[in-house]
Amino acid sequence: MTALLEVEDLRVAYGKIEAVKGISFKVDAGEVVTLIGTNGAGKTTTLRTLSGLLKPVGGQIKFGGKSLKKVPAHQIVSMGLAHSPEGRHIFPRMTIEDNLRLGAFLRSDRAGIEKDIQRAYDLFPILGERRKQAAGTLSGGEQQMLAMGRALMSQPKLLMLDEPSMGLSPIMMQKIMQTIAELKSQGTTILLVEQNAQAALSLADHGHVMEVGSIVLSGSGRELLHDESVRKAYLGED
Amino acid sequence: MTTQTTAPKTSGGVAGDGSTGLIGIPAHLGRALATGGGLLTVVSTFLAWTWTAEFPGDLTVYGYPGGLQVLVLIAGALTTLLGLASYGVRGLGWLVPAGADAALKFAALSAFATTWYTVIAISAQLGGLVNLEPGAYVAAAATLVAFLGALALPFERPEPDPFDPDDTGWEQFKHTSGNNWQTVKAAFASGTPRTLRPLPSYVEILIIVAVLAVALLVFTYGIGTEYDELFVGFLITAGLGFAALNKAGLIAQATQITSRHTNITVCGAFIAAACFPFTQTDDQYATLGVYILIFATVALGLNIVVGLAGLLDLGYVAFLGVGAYAASMVSGSPSSPFDLHLPFWAAVLVGAAASLVFGVLIGAPTLRLRGDYLAIVTLGFGEIFRITANNLDGTSGPDVTNGSNGISSIPDLNVLGFDLGVQHDIGGFTIGRFANYFFLMLIITAVVVLVFRRSGDSRIGRAWVAIREDETAALAMGINGFRVKLIAFAVGATLAGLAGTVQAHVTYTVTPEQYLFAGTTPPNSAFLLAAVVLGGMGTIAGPLIGASLLFLIPNKLQFLGDYQLFAFGLALVLLMRFRPEGLIANRRNKLEFHEEAEAPTTLSKTGA
Ligand SMILES: Nc1ncnc2c1ncn2[C@@H]1O[C@H](COP(=O)(O)OP(=O)(O)OP(=O)(O)O)[C@@H](O)[C@H]1O
Ligand SMILES: [Mg+2]
């Protein structure tokens, strides 16, 4: 069986500066794979390239067996790759419900959309309580829930989350991580970028450690969690 | 559904601690003065204000208010009614759902300003106070007393910001004026109106009809004002009177009712507009009507591009020009290069199609740009259109547009055997040429309103809003940013072209100079944009009202002369400072411009 997402020797550059210097990894269906690494390692750049917002200068991206190289961003979404971007990017002046509906922009099955909106409210009850409120009035953590719920509305085969725990309190973060685990148990495939290595690795089937544009270490989540150098660099132990 | 109703503040009640008026008259005396002053104002308008009919409007007659006196009469009556309502007089409570005091202040200010403006205008124009008759003194005194009385009404004073002793003198001055300004603002503030319980449908519809009738009346009065002074007086009375009704909470309640019956309101508004020519006895004001309608319709089209999709187009008038040129060339005009006389429906299609093509041609390369760049490029294309039209005259280029002379002698339209160029008698009313075109233009306006409403509520409308709010996120939702922007651009262009086809026939001549970026006569790109911004982006009523004001004010105030553009600029700056969301705010824009009501949308990154 081929992997759902296959990235091979991917290179991305901003002008002359290469931010991603030939990375390769794959994500199998039903898996949670995490990318961890320091600030500026190129994680966000990788995700943005996968969802078509940036054009790679080299390498291969295959999603469901098809190359994504020439596919524009809006079609990548329709192929089943959803991206919850770094910094959330919710639509602050729209209601929560309108935000969710926009997540389903490419779908036309009304009944299905209503059902999935309900599912998002079940997943994040706070969103259901505030459905008519402008999304900008939500707290940071609630906005992150909305961003995740919105990304799920496109019924993705692969959900890419860029730092869902950014700026959240420990409690909120735990909730988000719980939700990711819940999504995983429901069979959603997830590519997770996180600063919180401990949480991400305990959840993930596979992990990759990025440093200045390259993957320097790969392994199962458990292996990396117990790896000496990872513990030193990312978990703050000496 | 909120059940909480903010109690109207101090409407007739006893002033609480710390809530005193702006000036030191006891509150109960102030209220009496305001109400009595209002009544006396009404009486004074039945007296003569001046001895000679040289001042326009004939203010010399006893027992019969004329010209500006009518305006004062209305403002005085409003003051009296609000004054009585503030006493809690039974049967007047419906007038003041948000409390009477702030409204009373505005009404009294309205009467005061209009009266004093009139008195000063009479003295200035006729050379001295000797030209005033006792009636004028009575009116001036009555409105002054009423206004001072209203200012004495108590209000909740805001907590002043404490001083910082280290401040310099200038900072202290700024600080004090800031505090004073807050106090004045609070003095004119009112509570939120109580929510209106749903009335029986027919009552609500009758209310809508009444509101529309009043609107038509006000508009007709404004358009029919015959001299500068009356129009200025009209603006003062109408503006401050509107503020009074707004503070009273009536506008909010009317909005609640109309938003429960949007379809009826829109249809009613069109019927009211269609009544306009019947209120006019000669074609002169119908002329204004049709020009306003053209301007307003194009502004509404621009609102799709700017207000819904958020694309700043500074060359929009070019699309009006393309439509007008295209229609004029197939109109059978002798100066058209084509010897072609298409029926109107075909000319409309040609004009709209030409604008559509032009819109796509300009949009396709430019819409990949963001923000400021798009504005600059569209500005450039607008000018290129005008200059090209100027140069295609047979000497600088091929002869297509007849250069600066334009396409002239465009024949009048004949739609289904109905000649729009001549008078018709319909049911005892004489409908002149401009009134004919007014009706035709009204149909075009209806089309634009329909397109605006349908697209705003549709999938594409949601995509526009998403792109406007956050392009990155919109792309991540699978929205094809470029395509939806191009659609907005093309739809906007087509609608402007549609209006252009009628405009060509109304004006007889199409010349490049009608399609400037900025000029003193609308429509031009700058005025169109101003109409949208001033009226309220993303709304239907906004650009229509904005365009009406922007057309009427320069048209009526001829004395502004060379200072027109200066006054226009000043007005825009003030408006952007004090009401950035425009006269009519749409719910979303309110959030956009008053950020204090909103939580931060993105957190700054806390590095690991
Ligand atoms: N738009 C841009 N233009 C130029 N350089 C950029 C741009 N965006 C990112 N970079 C650079 O590319 C490198 C990788 O950035 P990226 O955002 O992918 O890092 P990251 O791993 O997501 O970091 P973080 O954990 O801080 O989010 C950084 O050195 C960054 O400065
Ligand atoms: Mg990042």
From TrEMBL, chain A:
Positions of the ABC transporter domain: 5-237
GO MF annotation terms: ATP binding; ATP hydrolysis activity; branched-chain amino acid transmembrane transporter activity
UniProt-listed InterPro entries: AAA+_ATPase, ABC_branched_ATPase_LivF/BraG, ABC_transporter-like_ATP-bd, ABC_transporter-like_CS, BCAA_Transport_ATP-bd_LivF, P-loop_NTPase
Lineage top rank: taxon: Bacteria
Keyword Transport (UniProt): yes
A Pfam family that the UniProt record links to this protein: ABC_tran
Keyword terms: Amino-acid transport, ATP-binding, Nucleotide-binding, Transport
Biological processes per GO annotation: L-amino acid transport
Family, as annotated: Belongs to the ABC transporter superfamily.
Protein name: ABC transporter ATP-binding protein
Species the sequence originates in: Streptomyces parvulus
Lineage, highest ranks first: Bacteria, Bacillati, Actinomycetota, Actinomycetes, Kitasatosporales
UniProtKB/TrEMBL annotation, chain B:
Organism placement in taxonomy: Bacteria, Bacillati, Actinomycetota, Actinomycetes, Kitasatosporales
Protein name: Branched-chain amino acid ABC transporter permease
CDD domains: TM_PBP1_LivM_like
Secretion signal span: none
Keywords from the named record: Cell membrane, Membrane, Transmembrane, Transmembrane helix
One CC-aspect GO term: plasma membrane
GO molecular function, one term: branched-chain amino acid transmembrane transporter activity
Membrane topology: Multi-pass membrane protein
Compartments where found: Cell membrane
UniProt main location, coarse: membrane
